[in-house]
Amino acid sequence: MTTRLRRIAGNGITHVTFAFCAMGGWAMFANRGYPPARFLLAGLVQGTLSALLTLFLKTAVEQLSRRIAGTYALWAPPLIACLASSAILATIHALSGTPEILKTIALPLAVSTSYAAIYNYSLYRKGKRA
């Protein structure tokens, strides 16, 4: 991988932009059976939420993994992150009038929870070695 490509791939703006486009696009797809104004709004809402959650998920998992000890540290941080993300996504989509809330948030939650679990596991393993 070239230095320039490595720099772009490691850039936080790249991650946030990708999250906005990918998950906003998914939300539009999940709501495609509704009028354009509804599926476009769902895409904008989900894209924005995914971008913001991408910014905060890593930090939240790091903070939680530092504060939780024992075997709880293995599963509690990603579970807490998933529950918080679920509550935020469901609430804001309900307030914005997204027609297909469950379909809209299923993929973003699966991706973010998987990321949180894998990242948390890597932190857990590092802590066990230290």
Gyration radius, rounded: 16 Å
Main sheet makeup: none
Q: What would you call the quaternary organization?
A: single chain
* Total E-strand runs: 0
Our estimate of the beta-strand percent is: under 5%
Terminus-to-terminus distance: 31 Å
Mean pLDDT: 91
Summarize this, please?
The protein is mostly helical. Helix content is 86%, strand content 0%. The chain has one domain.
What distinguishing features does this structure have?
130 residues; mainly alpha; 86% helix; Transmembrane protein; transmembrane helix; membrane; transmembrane
Q: Could you walk me through the main structural features you see in this protein, from its secondary elements to its overall organization?
A:
With 130 residues, the protein is mainly α. The protein has one domain. It is 86% helix and 0% strand. The chain contains five helices and no strands. The longest helix is centred in the middle third of the chain and has 32 residues. The model has no long low-confidence stretch (mean pLDDT 91).
Topology of this structure?
Layout (H helix, E strand, L loop, with lengths): L2 H7 L2 H19 L5 H32 L4 H25 L4 H29 L1
Protein name: Transmembrane protein
Organism: Rhizobium metallidurans
Keywords: Membrane, Transmembrane, Transmembrane helix
